[in-house]
Design goal:
With about 475 residues, the chain is an alpha/beta fold. It has helices spanning about 10, 35-45, 115-125, 135-150, 165-180, 190-200, 245-260, 275-285, 300-305, 320-330, 355-370, 375-385, 390-405, 410-420, 425-445, 465-480, and strands at about 5, 20-25, 50-55, 60, 65, 75, 80, 85, 90-95, 130, 150-155, 185, 205-210, 230-235, 260-265, 290-295, 310, 330-335, 350-355, 460.
Length: about 475
């Protein structure tokens, strides 16, 4: 196979170069913690000289204003993001024509997605399939397909799930099946790791903890952007139940009543936004609560630096990269004490409250009265910069890749034996599905021979970035998001 590589001192630090496929239902143009984690990790792996492609389903891109046919006005033109696209930095993304269900999650297909994913794996000479997020159908299927094809597989868990509600019980059972053949798992916090091991029953020794990170160059403080006479509390998140919007509805009125100098700046969108708007109208707080709508990730820093305090009301979080970004931008953080949040920041940079209105009101009041006046934004920024680094995350992930590549691939009979351990009934169902998948794979191998699939030459260009390149990347992302 032809291979084109541009060597540099960055790549020399990693003599073994890998070909990795990141697979997840959730990716750009959807914006969130998982999406930015995948993009940042892929970008820094490419900086270290590794080949990375992302596989996701097709998306409806944000509507763009175009001239109408009569050229007398403009109309919203929606473009479907499908096929092969390149993001800034050279990241190659396959937007596959799979049907999304709820919350941009693919409809489970069992074997229908196998031919296309196999074709991409062979075409890109993939060695490692790296799946992300438990609720991603595409990610779970990719782990199973990787075992069938004979590729190494790694899974990253980003969220915490319960054990007593019907949705979690079903998801945990599915995860127990798909994780039976995974080579290694990465969790973003120790709490997340404990939760993941309990849910999937995998061997704890293959579950690694690699925290999220933040690019400090994109979250530099700027105190000049703050209002000199008033104090601004910033909230940037998806406005959905899991992010504690119902708590936020109860927090804003008493805080505004107790502190006349407080304003709220809320960025984000979701099905709970209406509850917030109704509260603001009911309490007549239009002058003190500002809604920004959906905020592109490239503009999050510009929102954060306008505030003094960042408020996170999440009901469950395995890590919460949002509070890390806020602290890096120089804000004091008030957050619910849930999941892996206590592991993220030192105690003097965050106030933890119980996930109820009374505790959060007390915590936010304490921060406003006693904390924010003593915060040095640049000290916060430098401390986060020292603790968290995407290059460190990339290098630790590479060590996990090395370990799974050195492991022998499971045979068909070994995989069947693992599937049977899932449970008496579920194990039998998984066993039958695995046998069916094996015969489908043999049929696909016959209908689509490997030697008829064109292999793409590797172009691994370690990126030596400077400030001009970073500004260019941000500008391109902002333009695409618009």
């Amino acid at each position: 196979m032809a291979s084109i590589r541009i060597e540099s001192s960055v790549a020399d630090a990693n003599p073994r170069q890998h070909r990795i496929a990141m697979v997840c239902d959730f990716f750009y143009p959807r914006l969130g913690g998982v999406e930015m984690h995948i993009w940042s990790l892929a970008y820094h792996l490419m900086r270290l000289g590794h080949k990375v492609v992302v596989i996701t389903h097709s998306y409806d891109a944000p509507a763009q204003k175009v001239l109408s046919n009569d050229r007398k006005g403009s109309i919203d033109h929606k473009i479907k993001r499908t096929g092969v696209r390149y993001l800034p930095g050279g990241l190659k993304v396959y937007y596959c024509p799979f049907l999304p269900m709820v919350d941009e999650d693919c409809l489970p297909t069992f074997t229908i997605s196998l031919p296309l994913l196999r074709w991409i794996f062979i075409r890109e000479s993939i060695e490692i399939v790296h799946a992300h997020q438990a609720t991603s159908t595409l990610a779970n299927e990719a782990v199973v397909y990787a075992a069938e094809i004979g590729l190494a597989s790694v899974y990253t868990d980003h969220s915490l799930f319960g054990f007593d509600d019907i949705a979690s019980i079903i998801l945990n059972r599915v995860m127990k099946v798909t994780m039976s053949t995974v080579g290694a798992a990465i969790c973003v916090s120790n709490t997340c790791r404990d939760n993941f091991v309990l849910r999937t029953k995998i061997t704890p020794s293959i579950a690694h903890v690699i925290p999220n990170a933040v690019d400090p160059s994109k979250f530099t403080p700027d105190p000049s952007k703050r209002d000199k006479e008033r104090i601004t509390v910033v909230v940037v998140s998806r406005l959905v139940y899991r992010k504690g919007v119902d708590l936020l509805v109860g927090i804003i009125p008493p805080i505004c009543k107790a502190f006349p100098e407080i304003d709220f700046l809320i960025g984000g969108d979701g099905n709970k936004k209406l509850s917030l708007e109704e509260m603001v109208e009911r309490e007549r707080l239009q002058e003190r609560v500002t809604f920004l709508g959906s905020v592109p990730h490239g503009s999050v820093r510009d929102v954060l630096v306008r505030g003094h305090v960042f408020l996170n009301c999440s009901l469950t979080e395995s890590f919460c990269i949002a509070i890390l970004e806020a602290s890096c931008a120089g804000l004091f953080v008030v957050s619910t004490n849930v999941g892996g949040v206590p592991e993220v920041l030192p105690p003097d940079m965050i106030h933890l409250s119980e996930p109820n209105v009374e505790s959060l009101v007390e915590g936010l009041s304490h921060a406003i009265s006693k904390k924010i006046r003593r915060v040095d934004p640049y000290d916060f920024h430098n401390r986060v910069k020292e603790i968290y680094s995407w290059e460190r995350v990339a290098r630790e992930t590479i060590s996990v890749y090395d370990s799974v590549l050195n492991m022998p691939r499971l045979t068909f009979l070994q995989r069947l034996a693992r599937y049977k351990t899932v449970g008496r009934v579920a194990g039998l169902i998984a066993w039958l599905l695995a046998v069916t998948l094996h015969f489908v794979f043999i049929l696909v191998e016959w209908l689509q021979p490997r030697d008829l699939i064109d292999v793409v030459p590797d172009v691994c260009v370690p990126l030596i970035r400077d400030e001009r390149c970073l500004r260019y990347d941000n500008d391109v992302l902002k333009n695409e998001e618009r």
